[in-house]
TrEMBL record:
Similarity comment text for this entry: Belongs to the binding-protein-dependent transport system permease family. CysTW subfamily.
Principal subcellular localisation of the protein: membrane
UniProt key word Cell inner membrane: no
The protein, known as: Phosphate transport system permease protein
One Gene Ontology biological process: phosphate ion transport
Job description of the protein: Part of the binding-protein-dependent transport system for phosphate; probably responsible for the translocation of the substrate across the membrane.
Organism per entry: Horticoccus luteus
Keyword vocabulary terms for this entry: Cell membrane, Membrane, Phosphate transport, Transmembrane, Transmembrane helix, Transport
InterPro entries: MetI-like, MetI-like_sf, Phosphate_PstC, Phosphate_Transport_Permease
Spans traversing the lipid bilayer: 24-47, 79-105, 117-144, 164-189, 290-309
Amino acid sequence: MTGPFSLARFSPLRKSAHWPDRSFRWMALLAVAAIIGLIGLVGWQLYSGSRLAVEKFGFSFLTSTKWDPVSDEFGALPFIFGTLVSSLIALIIAVPLGIATALFLTEMAPQKMRQPAIMVIEMLAAVPSVIFGLWGIFVLIPWLRDHLFQWLRDTLGFLPFFQGPIYGVSMLAGGIIVAIMILPIVTAISREILRSVPKLQREAAYALGATHWEVIRIAVLGYAQRGLFGAAVLGLGRALGETMAVTMVIGNRPEIKASLFAPGYTLASVIANEFTEATSDVYLNSLFELGLVLFALTILVNAAAQLMLRRLAGSGPGKVAG
């Protein structure tokens, strides 16, 4: 509005009327700056704590497979391998199962069944990690060792992933326990994303003569694919950092083996297991550097996921979801 009665002419009044907006804007900006500063502070602390190991081992720390506290020789490769493989196994199991569960709850389940099922899934997310670990040791591991692993070796033993002796504690057991732990997160987020698909999408597909399955596949999943990918990324974020339950079932052996029946080790597990046993500065700094590697790995994975989300937003049916 311009002219002799424009509000711009009464600038003191306009400023006093907008101070709540300005205050909120500054508070929001301060919150964002605090989060960024906290991330930077964590990264700096990890780097400063690992400086001795960085100077001694350099880049070879990431490529060495040797982890020998007696001779002060340390390498992170077995732990990076264990973290990535166990997380990948967890995603392969949890993402299809979580999306299928969310689809059932939003598209097919009877109304009376939905709320109890949702409550059970949400309760599963609240179970502490150590409880999953105990259950894994006394229930899951014996069953896997006596039944599933035997069946996998008998059926798919021609593949290197399912060869070798079966101990029970293994990389595959670690991946399965992480899959169980991230399943509620993937399911809950996927369900919210599928619920946000407009009814108009479904009605338009039905109007064109689509079957129920075609409506789900084209109108629902096609529309929500970007959000579902985001749900998988959030699940991966938890899988990478999961510690206690994995430590109790993965075997904790710093080796790189093709067989999923062999024990493994993850970045988070070795830090939790050996932090109190670090008797030398190099040992302690090496554990700090493992934490720095895990920190960087998480940021890289999330950055790659963001790039993939942008590519999905620019092509295919998921574009409309953005």
